[in-house]
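Rotation project, supervised by the postdoc (A.L.). Task for the rotation student: set up a whole-complex structure prediction and record inputs and outputs verbatim in this book. Inputs entered:
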Amino acid sequence: MDCFSELTYSIYVDGELPADERSQVDEHLLVCPRCRALVLALRREASLLTGVLQTTSAESLETATGLHSALGILGAFSGMVAVAVVVVMVLTWVGREFLGSTPLYNPINRTAIIAAFVDAALYLANQGASMLYSIVTTLSVLTLAFLVLVAVRFALRRNALSMGLLAGLGLTFLLGSPSSAAAIERRTGTVVTIPEGQTVEDSLFVAGQSVSVNGTVNGNAYMWGQRIVVRGDIKGDLFTGNQSLEIDGTVEGNVYSYGNTVVVRGHVMRGLHIFAADLEVYKDGQVGSDAVAFAGDVRFDGTAGRDLDVRVGTLEMAGHVGRNVHARAGDRITVFAPARIDGNLEASVNNATDVHIEPGAAVSGKKDVHLTVKEPSRYSQPRFYLWQAVRLGAALLTGFILFLLFPTLFAGRIESALGTLTGVGIGFVLLIVPPIAAVALGITLVGLPLGLVSLMAWIVGLYLAKVFVAATIGQMLVPPGADPERQNASFALALLLGLAIVFVAINLPYIAWLTKFLVLLLGLHLLGRQVLATWRRAYGGRARSSAQ
Amino acid sequence: MRTGLGGSMDEGKLSAVLGRAGSGDADAYAELFREFQPRVLALCRYLLGSFEDAEDAASEVFARLPRSMKTYDAALPFPKWLMSVASHHCVDQLRRRKVQQRIFDPPDERTPEAVSAETSPLEELVSAEEQNAVRKAIAALPERSRLPLVLRYYNDLSYDEIAATLSLSRANVATLIFRAKQELREALARKEKIGKSPKLTKAHKGTW
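Outputs recorded:
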């Protein structure tokens, strides 16, 4: 009898041959050792397949696709990087070609930045006070209601605690009532006026749309409003947040103002500190001490007893400065004819032609003009990309070697947005505390080596922070497979991907400082947590085994 | 870790849980999920070929379980029944993916013998590494041979049951399974040839 086909034997082994065929096969197998061997092999194969398939955990199949999709992600990411590079180059070009001449839209222009800050602050200035007020009121009402409930509950028990609570409640009412604020005046409303002849005995707090001080304030004045006019006399300091501030009267202390426009026609006996879009000090305006301004445009025709120190877009002055003038101007500095500077004039500008001193203006000291050299954008230099690539390579190597040495260090994951936020907070602590602790240790002679070591560890940690963030991000995108053979490769890929993302993030124009800082904090947190976990695992294990 | 059809839950406990599930106890379904999800997922992964799709399919199978429990015949072992529900679901998914209704062209009956001369049945494999290689080779098989193979050796379905699941004739199922095994042998033989030559490559493969 002829041998059966292998297909038939396969069906036979699977137990699926009809009874009559099966007995024929059985008969044949008795006489044919070759077919017996084949059937035996097929049986082994079937049991092997069953065994292999049924011991499968789903994860062991994941690696191939994981790696595959990782390559896909890498491709997509390269595309994103290319797009980002093009965007940055276009932005740089547009910025150079057009924005220099249209300051309003140039994000680096100081005037525009100040205007934006002021606009943002104005919203708070106009709405913020009432908003804050209503929030505070609501909160205090809620707190009171809570206290009342708790007090009533405890009052039924009549113990010491309830008495204490009731006392606290009474105190709160007392403090909350207007009579307790006798020392300080608070005023709110759309229009607030301190009329001529009226005297506020102590400090004055005002929030209003339009605020006028025509009388006298014996303490400090804190004012928040759209338009603030001082015609009277403020004996203390003046603090304002405003759209416009006009000082026509006298401030005997310092002035600190954050606002859109500030006009000084009156007398500030001590310093003038201004953060504003525009500052004008008129001919009659007097500043007893220093005048310091961070502003878009400054016109200074009045008198400053000591220095005039400004960082501005443009500075025009025709006034009298008792000592030096320090001015850093984005656009230009003009000193008009009757101006008198008793000290030096130090000017920092972009071009030598940006400083104008009229012949009639007198500068007693030196005239220094510093030119701020504008560096070409680093994004336009190939060297920058080369160095970034070198740094990325170094970080990759460092991370990979660390992974080979201490794989558990990289097991950290960021679980949630909240976790990230907490991580940033903990990272901040890790950034601040170790150097302080190291210095504290270093003060004692015994602790000196320890302090040095911990300082070194901290510095290394600062470098490793971004590697850890990169590894974490990378491993979120390319989850490590269960296959131990591919572990290293998949980690290397994840690290590369993460590093690429981190490097792009910490080199973004304008926000690089922020992303760098966040990466540092998050990295320190991840590093700290994993070091702690690794140590705990090692130490905890030993402790347990020694206990047995 | 064995995740075969015999579960870690013993018979008595399983039937108790099934009883609770039958009366609509949500906790019972959670227990069933914990017990059988890995196996269902692995099956779906084998059948569908993609991990994402498998996860979707597995969670859908469990989401529909309260409804499909009504068709459960207590005479059948529950794991086997659940696996057949899952494989039906996967096959449906695959059908929906294809434009035409039939995923399987009936295999060409004339040629199966041609390949057999070159390859012999796989001998017993010992190491986990080799088992892994087999798993990967199975995952890489084309759908038409992978499905019957998996249903036969993972799900322990009979030829008739596979035929019903895949809408094929019994003879087609036999041929497809036979073919699948041959393709598997060929794939592994190829891999062996590549992997064997220099010992170094094998040792250092994992590093990068």
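Student's summary: Residues 58-68, 99-108, 177-183, 541-548 of chain A have pLDDT under 50 and may be disordered.
Supervisor addendum: Chain A is about 50% helix and 25% strand.
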